[in-house]
Amino acid sequence: MSQTTIDPRSLRAPPRRPLRLSWSDERVRAIVWQVLVVGIIGAIVWWLWSNTVHNLEVRRIATGFGFLGREAGLPIAENLIPYSPTDTYFRALLIGLLNTLKVAVVGIVLATVFGTLIGIARLSKNWLLSKIAGVYIEVIRDLPLLLQLLFWYAILQGLPGPRQALHPVGGVFLSNRGLKLPWIEWQDAHSYALLAFALGALFTWFYRRDAIRKRILDGRPRPVWPVALGCLLVLPVAIWAAAGAPWTVDWPELRGFNFRGGLNMSPEYFALLLGLTTYTAGFIAEIVRAGILAVPHGQWEAAQALGLRPGQVLKQVVLPQALRVIIPPMTSQYLNITKNSSLAVAIGYQDIVSIANTTLNQTGQAIEGIAIIMLVYLSISLSISLFMNWYNARIALVER
Amino acid sequence: MSETLDHIASAARTDAPPAILLDKVNKWYGALHVLRDVSLNVALGERVVVCGPSGSGKSTMIRCINRLETHQEGTIKVNGIELSDDLKALDDIRREVGMVFQSFNLFPHLTILENCTLAPIWVRRMPKKEAEELAMHYLTRVRIPEQAKKYPGQLSGGQQQRVAIARALCMKPKIMLFDEPTSALDPEMIKEVLDTMVGLAETGMTMICVTHEMGFARQVADRVVFMDRGEIVEIGEPNHLFENPQTERLKTFLSQILRGH
After folding, report:
1. What is the ipTM of this complex?
2. Would you say the C-alpha torsion A69, A71, A73, A78 has a positive or negative sign?
3. pTM of the entire structure?
4. In B, which residues are within 8 Å of A317 by CB distance?
5. What is the per-residue burial (b if ≥16 Cβ within 10 Å, else e) of A236-273?
6. Is A131 in the B-facing interface, judged by CB distances under 8 Å?
7. Domain A89-158+268-395 sits in which CATH superfamily?
8. Interchain CB distance below 8 Å, B154 and A216
9. Where are the domains positioned within chain A?
10. pLDDT tens digits for B50-100?
């Protein structure tokens, strides 16, 4: 291998080409077109803006976001944080945003898990498994999402009423009022234990990473399970026990025409989550399958021939290459889940669109209402994009 | 032909346990019978070149030796360990058998050095520093230590194939399998890879090499195996085999090979 040395005389700047003022000059044309396009877009924006301002003046509509501080007076069935109709529009919209995030975040996690499993199942050598996955993907992808949401909602509405609720296991009730589950009466001790568990999980994760790093450096294996056992089980249980070991289960109970107590998942939320998850999982399955197939079979063979076990081949060789193919289209699917959650309005789940719509009807502040919806989706989408682009850049191939 | 087969039998008797033993191995792809009663003993330190027309089953045969393909009938033993569904035995065999592919199959997301240290670190549980020293040792032996920090895509085909050889050697295998290692290379790069393989042969490594490089076969091989339509047709010392082909099939093959060169 000869080392190429750079001739110092060649270290000079590239020559500058003078601009020729002629329509046949490529750069002159480029500049003219760009000035033209910017000018046209500017004119359209100015026309829309002045029209809007003029019309608002003629109709004597007050603009601005002052209405956000007024009492909303609109009832919301599901809220993650306390809310009553006497609260402000701002708080109502915040509840809507949280409801959107609740379905989008859970949907993204579930769709990723199910989609990955279905994608791998479709690649399986098991004939039945791969055919079932194939049929699932084709059916789910070929039907409009709105239709699927209405279908799930209709099925949930078709369930028996609370008095005849399906009752597969003690404490679990499935009726047209939703899914009811038993839940412990939440006390401080539980919060402390949960906090300990979360911190323990974080610590275990870092400990494991460090153990692998050290193992690579000196070849000595360091078992992670004692640390995991201590942090994830022993410590949280000890804290819970030290705080008096409270354990009162809140069982859902039929009172009159509906259930009281327990954990509740409304049919609207359940239908929306189910529809979004199953729909998007179909697309994610194909993305995962394409990603794994994009890694040449020779990579598997070379890694196996070196003595790596299948799990190691997947982790060290195949996934790092497959993820580069999987991440960009996966970002689109995450954005789709978030935006498609606005179809909630069709089945009566109160997400940001639904609540902003009601706000808009009650206050007449159409432009502000639409602006808020747009701002919310833009913020969520940009956050997802930024995170995924950062992750993509992190795992990208350095050079090829 | 019976004479040449006796020669293997005697070779197997004199040497203690064979490094590789294939006994009446059969394999089918669907209804296609791709290996027919293939029997071959390779002694420790022996260099065997396998040749034959395309589709003759030579690649399939050596891919069966580290179970990248599974045979359906017969026995394959490597270092006395029988290949079966036993995963532990398979692990033991793959650690001892290195393989070089026609299409290199370097890992594009890892540097040359990382390509070489991956298996020692994860399979042999070798400390990173030691694995890197080992990798540099073998990269020096294939004469490309200065490329260690680059990625496979930045190297020429010949360089990539030499890295693939170094990567396999880092597992300190007792046996090396070569599956047409020079077939995907430009003519001027074939020599650098063959030189590396000749150097490896001189260290006494047990080698099975599928190749059409007859010059290499003459220079290095203890025995040449000629395969056609899934069968071993002739086995013998290279000069003897090339100058006195016993079968019509080998005569045809040799005339085609020589015309091509």
Report:
1. 0.88
2. positive
3. 0.76
4. 107, 118
5. beebbeeeeeeeeebbbeeeeeebeebebebbbbbbbb
6. no
7. MetI-like (1.10.3720.10)
8. no
9. 89-158+268-395, 186-247
10. 999 988 999 999 999 999 999 999 999 998 899 988 888 899 999 999 999
